[in-house]
């Protein structure tokens, strides 16, 4: 695992966008893994800018979201299908048909999870996975205690994560209790993983994931086992290293 400490989110966005751009110039039909949350947003803005300004082409890209809430209608503004489209894929020329999000509204959840895993496999696997991290060390929605070998499945959010994410909803009661998420094993299959974290509220999670033991208590620590994991943090998020 390589940890890179940068002055702020602008530099993080620029470096992460460089990695995406280099991949797309080498492999125009690359498979991207996309994260929600607020930390990756400057990366998406930077990529949208490069699309506009430098004609960075996403027409052959396939994209897979990490996770989705269960029980929100697909057109709910906070469903991750909507968030990923609004914040990124609709701002570049990725075909909507090439954007895959776990189906949190499916009647048969295990079948929907299997279909999602199959779609990643059929696309040839994820080339570059972007990740944020929760204050409890979750990646995707793999909360503490997630199996290090897990695949896409349903999970229950802990109260802290629901509180953290309530800022996107009207109030805490509106935040779903259940989610579908790529498993830690699914994430580990990506060929390159870039995790981004900013702000002092992520300092403990960054320390646990980079310097703590590999443990299901801090799901992101599993990235220590990945052969090509890059962690981009600002000085505040690095302050406990
Ligand atoms: C959600 C997402 C995670 C994300 C986390 C942190 O829980 N499922 O993928 O990493 O939020 O979000 P933020 O970057 O807003 O702190």
From TrEMBL:
Taxonomically, the superkingdom here is Bacteria
Q: What class of enzyme is it?
A: hydrolase
Question: Where's the active site on this chain?
Answer: 67, 136, 138, 143
Q: In which pathway does it act?
A: Amino-sugar metabolism; N-acetylneuraminate degradation; D-fructose 6-phosphate from N-acetylneuraminate: step 5/5
The record's catalysed reaction(s) read: alpha-D-glucosamine 6-phosphate + H2O = beta-D-fructose 6-phosphate + NH4(+)
Modes of activity regulation? Allosterically activated by N-acetylglucosamine 6-phosphate (GlcNAc6P).
E.C. number, please?
A: 3.5.99.6
List residues of the Glucosamine/galactosamine-6-phosphate isomerase domain.
10-213
Keyword set includes Iron? no
> Which function does this protein serve?
Catalyzes the reversible isomerization-deamination of glucosamine 6-phosphate (GlcN6P) to form fructose 6-phosphate (Fru6P) and ammonium ion.
Q: Which family does it belong to?
A: Belongs to the glucosamine/galactosamine-6-phosphate isomerase family. NagB subfamily.
Protein name, UniProt field: Glucosamine-6-phosphate deaminase
Native organism is Arthrobacter humicola
The encoding gene is nagB
